[in-house]
Amino acid sequence: MKYDIPVAVASVAQSQSGAVTRQQLLDAGLKSQTIFRRLERGRWQQLHRGVYAVFTGPVPRETTLWAVLLRAGPGAALSHLTAAELHGLIDYPGETIHVTVPSTRRVTLHGVVVRMSGRIAEATHPGREPLRTTIEETVFDLIDLAHTFDDACGWITRAVGRRLTTAERLSETLKLRRKMRWRATLEDILAAAGDGIHSVLEYRYLRDVERAHGLPRSRHQVRVVIGGRTAYRDAYYEEYPLAVELDGRLAHPEEERGRDRRRDNYGAPDDVLTTRYDWQDVTLHPCQTALLQARILRRRGWLGMPRPCSAGCPLEGFPPIASFRPIASTGTAGFASH
Fold it and tell me: What is the pLDDT of residues 142-184, one digit of tens each?
């Protein structure tokens, strides 16, 4: 984009996507009358008080974000959903821009969510422009605003799953936050994320199906060779060999779900059997899902004994080992860690 601006301040405008402050213009030698004339004639546009776009036409998102930062003043950083947008944690621009300023200042910006923090300086990503909070700080800022635990879990698994950060770096950042909801559970999620869990549903399967019912521990995001083809499975029981696919879609055509389950849960020509569960199976019916998994694992050679998670859990009456006949292996499946 070509900016209508004197050479003396062109580099500044270029670095700020065409947004400049009145003070920057005055420091470059422009007179107040010149600034007023260009605004009056529509050659420039006022975005906030004392902040202008030095071009005509639509204002790009980048310019809008820069204008907010310039108006918010020194030490401000884009944060929360806006920082998530810039980091690639979300795939869409938010309707509202979020900015955090030092707690020593009060800033009001029309149509902008302004928050204050005493540690915004250490939370800001060094060298990234426009200035924003680090991906780790952004994740925990969003967790602070989460309405549900699943939402909170989702920010961690998404950040790690998209390789924007690591569970270790998130754990270090969590230690710096004095107040944090769900701290103990977040630490558990981070441990699971470090082992390869990349979604809320995968964590729910680990916690509510596997752990709660004493099933063997699976590995996550494992590359499995089935019928000569390589595929990644959300969970994999290497010893048995049994793979699990978790479908997080809330809406799924019933006939397609039935076809997938009949094919995957009860028979496959390969040595690797695949079971498939959706959101309702794992979150609404974890006991029934655990019962089915326990039966399949037993038939594939698991000698352990599942445990009921509570009174009335269907696993209370799980039959002894002698009543199961192992399924014979039909071949050898290859696998490797992702």
Answer: 999 999 999 999 999 999 999 999 999 999 999 999 889 899 9
Residue 241's contacts (CB-CB under 8 Å, 6 or more residues apart) are 224, 271, 272, 273, 300, 333, 335
DSSP 257-312: HHHHHHHHHS--SSSSEEEEEEHHHHHT-HHHHHHHHHHHHHHTT-------SSTT
Average pLDDT over residues 249-266: 48
- The pLDDT tens digits of the residues spanning 84-141 come to 999 999 999 888 999 999 999 888 898 999 999 999 999 999 988 999 999 999 999 9
Closest C-alpha to 206, from 276, 284, 314, 282:
282
Q: What's the sign of the alpha-carbon dihedral 306, 310, 313, 317?
A: positive
* Structural tokens at position 266: 């009860």
**Distance between CA atoms of 77 and 85, rounded to whole angstroms?**
13
Give the CA dihedral 304, 193, 244, 91, nearest 10 degrees.
Answer: 160
| Partners of 245 in beta bridges | 276
* Contact call for residues 248 and 199 (beta carbons, < 8 A): yes
